[in-house]
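Narrative of activities, Objective 1.

The group set out to show that a structural description can be obtained from nothing but a protein's sequence at a throughput compatible with the screening campaign. Below is one input-output pair from the validation batch, recorded exactly as produced.
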Amino acid sequence: MPPGIIYSEVAPPLAKDAIKELQGTATSGGGHRGKVRIVLGQADFGKLQEEEVLIIPDPDVGWTPLFSRAGAVIAEAGGMLSPHSAIIARECGVPIVAFMPGATSLEEGVEVHVDGCPGKESVLAVKGAE
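Output recorded for this entry:
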């Protein structure tokens, strides 16, 4: 991760360390193992395949049409006060974890395990990370 402040005209080199796990807040319970699909906008909606782990920037209501196709949903922003997306995810039987900074930085296609057990910090475990 780059430093918060850079005191130079040249950016420091970024480490290519494998992400082993990320933490977030479960807002819809359940667990799922699947491949990551990052969707940053409406133009990417068609990329999501059945049972993939959908990673989105925020749990806004606009993403909910994808929930029925996803095996799990991860949002970089949001939290327990993002109730609409959590309600839709629960109705679809899909675990959702919000407020997981760094999630959109994962490599597409990597296999992850999503733990959406409410009441504890959820950890996204990346399979094969060193």
